[in-house]
Design brief:
alpha/beta, Rossmann fold, two-stranded parallel sheet, 17% strand
């Protein structure tokens, strides 16, 4: 029997992938700005009460990490208050709420991949508001799946690290990239695929928090080098000839970021009985997809 799925944030880089990938799993009701405004709780409540979905997938978030430092109220409204509203309405409907969160709920003061049960300690407004959203869902909605992911990039959406590197690499002969922050680059398409794979298994027994990223680790510098190596092979127009590794201290930003935010993905791998593909392999696939779809 087909389920009704309300997809919130369908215009984002994960949301666009979800629109395509979720269609075999139910009747998709896609909403995004300007149709829905996450800063207006009543618009959220009204659409959920009107549609009465069995599953709500929240792919919307305030993700401007540095800008959040000067816009804490807006970040809180979208990342903390809106998930609370979704959780309250999901609980009333006995619907299942799937919510995407972030590695930035951790402080990075470790050298081993973070487990779902590890202590959180966000360093930024963005991380704090995302953690507040998680906590609101856990406290309010029995049937929930919180999926923490990291370093997301994709074919869709206005901007991400891969697209920024391709743009700058076509304009500048030299780029300076931070080399002392470590994480796992993750393709938005893989996040959407994992959410789709979890849907048939949704139950109170598997409710909880999960980590999912592509496997392998990299610094932003490693990631940039890989982007240009793959892009060059695929014939993207590039001017960049030198990529210089720098420290976080040499590239100050308004928001503090964890130095190490690798997520352990064993819990979700055990449920799905497969392990995430390596980030370098998926980067290549994304660039092929991007080149075909958008030209280069």
């Amino acid at each position: 029997m087909s389920k009704s799925i309300l997809l919130i944030g369908s215009n984002g880089q994960v949301g666009k992938e979800l629109q395509q990938i979720l269609s075999p799993y139910g009747d998709i009701i896609s909403v995004a700005r300007p149709t829905i405004d996450l800063t207006q709780p009543e618009t959220l409540r009204s659409i959920i009460r009107e549609k009465k979905p069995q599953i709500i997938v929240n792919a919307a978030a305030y993700t401007a990490v540095d800008k959040a430092e000067s816009e804490p109220e807006l970040a809180t409204a979208i990342n903390a208050t809106a998930p609370l509203i979704l959780a309250e309405e999901s609980q009333k409907l006995k619907a299942f709420l799937i919510h995407i969160s972030t590695d930035y709920v951790f402080d990075g003061n470790t050298c081993h991949p973070y487990q779902e049960t590890d202590v959180t300690n966000p360093l930024s407004v963005y991380g704090k508001t995302k953690l507040a959203g998680e906590e609101a869902i856990r406290e309010t909605c029995a049937h929930h799946l919180i999926l923490r992911t990291a370093w997301v990039y994709g074919t869709f959406g206005k901007s991400n690290f891969v697209k920024t590197m391709l743009r700058l690499g076509a304009e500048r002969p030299e780029l300076r990239i931070v080399a002392d922050q470590i994480g796992s680059p993750t393709w938005a398409q893989d996040i959407a695929t994992v959410i789709a794979q979890m849907i048939p298994q949704l139950s109170l027994e598997i409710s909880g928090t999960y980590h999912y990223t592509n496997s392998g680790v990299a610094s932003w510098y490693d990631f940039a080098v890989a982007i240009f190596e793959e892009a060059q092979q695929l014939g993207f127009p590039l001017k960049v000839a030198s990529i210089v590794p720098i420290t976080t201290a040499e590239y100050p930003t308004p928001a503090r970021r964890p130095a190490y935010s690798v997520l352990a993905c064993g819990k979700i791998s055990a449920v799905l009985k497969n392990y995430p593909p390596h980030w370098r392999q998926r980067l290549r696939e994304m660039l092929i997809d991007f080149k075909i779809g958008h030209g280069a």
